[in-house]
């Protein structure tokens, strides 16, 4: 490394050890106080030495010792998490990180307080959505968020409760209804307090019904309180509503005023329409 009075070699090595995927902003914190040109020249130096490799503009991956820089592919979840400083991995990506996804996907999803974002990188696509309505305040952004360690890096991801709600709200981002429910049924338990808090934040009748119908099918295994189901039922939509916005046909769950595809059901016993 180019030696500078402000930046000893060990500091860069320590930074790379702690940040296998990082943004330009992250790196600038390492050499805070140096001129912008100095920070840019350091990055260019490490790229030329193939110590790091660009992923896209403003985003880099550290090449581990002994790996071929030209063929090294960093962890895709770390890439997704590093796209924005406030990224929270969600939808099917959250199911994957939490170890519950039935299949893997080539599109990765996250929430951010900034503008929506779309990008492609090798065989993967990345989509960042704005936080859902109801989470307008920054203090609400951590509702239902958990931390997971990936390659010694702390990653924020929607937890089981929020993933349940989000995936039933937008099953198209969870691999479809069948993939969503099969994956969600892998969770051994839910914190119903967190679940109700997040549902109240969103305030969507269709989602109250979807979550209620899902929990009702596994009420004994999950020890779902009857009072919770009654609370969710009171918030169901007043008119018949489809689980999926683009859905046509399906099975009517009378208690929930919800029309669901057959793939949603564990047992096909409700009234058909």
Task: Give a quick precis of the structure.
This protein is α+β, with helices and mostly antiparallel strands and 273 residues long. It is built from eleven helices and twelve strands. A hairpin with a 4-residue loop joins strand 11 (251-253) and strand 12.
List the helices and strands and how they pair.
Blueprint: H1 9-18, E1 21-23, H2 24-30, H3 36-48, E2 52-56, E3 59-62, H4 76-82, E4 88-89, H5 91-97, E5 107-112, E6 117-121, E7 124-130, E8 145-150, E9 153-158, H6 160-169, H7 177-184, H8 192-202, H9 205-217, H10 219-222, H11 226-234, E10 241-242, E11 251-253, E12 258-260
Parallel strand pairs: 5-7, 10-12
Antiparallel strand pairs: 1-3, 2-3, 4-5, 6-7, 8-9, 11-12
Descriptive notes:
The protein is α+β, with helices and mostly antiparallel strands and 273 residues long. It has three domains: 9-62; 75-199, no CATH class; 204-273, no CATH class. It has helices spanning 9-18, 24-30, 36-48, 76-82, 91-97, 160-169, 177-184, 192-202, 205-217, 219-222, 226-234; strands at 21-23, 52-56, 59-62, 88-89, 107-112, 117-121, 124-130, 145-150, 153-158, 241-242, 251-253, 258-260. The strands form four sheets. Strands 4-5-7-6 form a four-stranded mixed sheet. A three-stranded antiparallel sheet has the order 1-3-2, sandwiched between helices. It has a three-stranded mixed sheet with strand order 10-12-11, covered by helices on one side. β11 (251-253) and β12 (258-260) form a beta hairpin. α6 runs parallel beside α8.
């Amino acid at each position: 490394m180019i030696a500078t009075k402000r930046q000893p070699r060990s500091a860069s090595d320590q930074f790379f050890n702690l940040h296998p995927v990082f943004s330009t902003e992250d790196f600038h914190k390492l050499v805070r106080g140096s001129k912008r040109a100095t920070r840019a020249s350091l990055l260019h130096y490490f790229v030329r030495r193939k110590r790091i490799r660009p992923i896209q503009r403003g985003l880099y991956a550290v090449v581990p010792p002994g790996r071929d820089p030209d063929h090294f592919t960093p962890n895709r979840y770390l890439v997704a998490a590093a796209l924005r400083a406030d990224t929270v991995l969600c939808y099917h990506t959250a199911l994957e990180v939490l170890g519950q996804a039935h299949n893997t996907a080539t599109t990765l999803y996250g929430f951010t307080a900034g503008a929506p974002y779309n990008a492609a990188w090798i065989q993967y696509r990345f989509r960042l959505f704005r936080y859902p309505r109801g989470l307008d305040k920054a203090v609400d952004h951590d509702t239902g968020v958990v931390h997971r360690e990936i390659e010694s890096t702390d990653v924020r991801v929607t937890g089981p409760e929020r993933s349940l709600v989000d995936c039933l709200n937008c099953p198209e981002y969870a691999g479809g209804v069948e993939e969503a429910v099969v994956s969600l049924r892998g969770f051994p338990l839910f914190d119903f307090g967190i679940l109700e808090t997040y549902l109240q934040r969103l305030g969507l009748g269709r989602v109250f019904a979807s979550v209620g119908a899902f929990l009702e099918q596994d009420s004994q295994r999950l020890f779902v309180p009857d009072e919770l189901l009654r609370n969710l039922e009171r918030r169901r939509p007043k008119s018949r509503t489809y689980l999926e916005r683009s859905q046509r046909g399906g099975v009517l769950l009378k208690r929930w005023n919800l029309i669901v595809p057959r793939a949603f059901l564990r047992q096909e016993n409700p009234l058909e329409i």
